[in-house]
Write a structure and sequence with these properties.
The complex is a heterodimer. Chain A is α+β, with helices and mostly antiparallel strands. In chain A, about 20% of the residues lie in helices and about 40% in strands. Chain B is mostly helical. The longest helix of chain B is centred in the first third of the chain and has 30 residues. The chains are: A alpha+beta, B mainly alpha.
Amino acid sequence: MSFAKCDIQLERAGFSVNAQFTVPSKGVLGIFGHSGSGKTTLLRCLAGLEKNVKGTVEVNGETWLDKKQNLSSQQRNIGYVFQEGRLFPHLTVAKNLEYGARRNPEKNNSVDRVHLIELLNIQRLLKRYPYQLSGGEKQRIAIGRALLKSPQMLLLDEPLASLDENRKQEILPYLEKLHEELHIPILYVSHNIDEMLRLCDDILVMQQGRSVFNGNIHDALISSESTLATVENAVAVIEGSVSKQEKDFNISTVHTVNGNQFQVPGLMAIGKRVRLIVFARDVSLAKSKAAESSILNIIEGKVSAVLDKKGGRVLLQINCNQDIVLSLISIKSYQLLQLSLDKKIYIQVKAVVTHGN
Amino acid sequence: MFEPFILTAKLAALTTLILFVIGTPVAWWLANTKLKAKPVIEAVVALPIVLPPTVLGFYFLMLLSPQGWFGSWWVEVTGQTLTFSFSGLVIASVIYSFPFVVQPIQSAFESVGHDMIEAAYTLGAKPLDAFFTVAVPLAKRGFLTGGVLGFAHTLGEFGMVLMVGGNIPGETRVVSIAIYDHVEMLEYGQAHVMAGILLVFAFTAMLSMYVVNHNLKVKQ
């Protein structure tokens, strides 16, 4: 069920944004695009921070934008986390957190402060001032501050962009926890496909100010419309849960929704829901099931689409009993294997990345 | 002996207070406007810094005198004349010290920028709320500097007071005029005392401004 329907247009000198998309009532909608593709401007339009926006925005039955009105930021019950956090430097962490909570227009403070402070692990920071915090801590406070307002929607504008790699890895687990616990939609802007793969359920792809794809992330990654499935960065994600552990080998088995099994490195709790990330360059193809191979994951499937060809390589979509993966092979192999649509084939997956969800 | 000091302090305090009230919105507007005419307005605001006080005083004399358009309106409304009165001095001082209060506040608002205000908006703060809870506290050093400079600059008025206010004891005879009087009459001893007090006061004001300003710095 869609929570919000948006049709947003903004004209500026030398730049325009034109995007149509829906926001599901729960989960993370990733807004993905390269820098300059208009994703931050789009988020600002949705937050009521831009003037002269045209179109319609309907959120949970309320009209935020149409021909007659354009609600101000204060009137839209959103939580917004800026790229640089924008904590108030003259207030302590505790006062920063309070700022939004005290100004909640609906006065329904549905967010449990104690629980949120625990979730974000910021208890010991409450008395500090922003200048005494690390970049990662600042972003956690900024997220807490936005959520304590009990918003209907949480908007995150590249919250990790200003952090180095280590700090990013420190924050991502918190974002994953939020994803699990929050019952409001999260809009997450990023130019980093890895963050999208880890966090998003749905995705909106922006290109030169226009929305080119809006839908489920699985579909986005494997369809040609979204422009994500290209020879350069093709990847697929598959949802599953852990069904077996092999302590001796440090390997866990993940069962996918469609009944396939993947063996992945690392020991994970049985029953844990995980997301498998399979890069196309790690998937090779064979006509028969190799009886003896170092590759653990060999699964039967069939070619369901030819997506992209460039520089002597071809990107294929392989359907393994409804689990879709991509495979990047040379055109020479493609011809040697005499591949064509619906041809039965075995995928050999060299590496799988997993993320707990 | 102390009458001129009390009068001067009253004048400077009242002028500074009025300037906070009318200068703050002007500073905010100047810091945020995208109007093309902004440099023109900034130049007008800055004029009292460069104009000889006698020029300013001369125009004020024209404007505030019972024949001038403002002075005649004032006489109609209050029955009092503005020239050679304390009220006239206050009005002239407000203009005379205007840039000294507005400019520091404006540049403080400019360095606060719009980002923090936007953050306050997304947290549900209305514009006036965001102004008082975010912009003003972050610009507090500008207010301190503006207040001290406006007060001190008004203390130092001479040429304009002479033109607009004259030398009426208890009404327009401020310290700088009193010192001039004493020197004219070769009463160097009294001139020394008054000049000394003003010097010490001015130094103390500046010193405390710089010390407090340093301590007020909002760490980023």
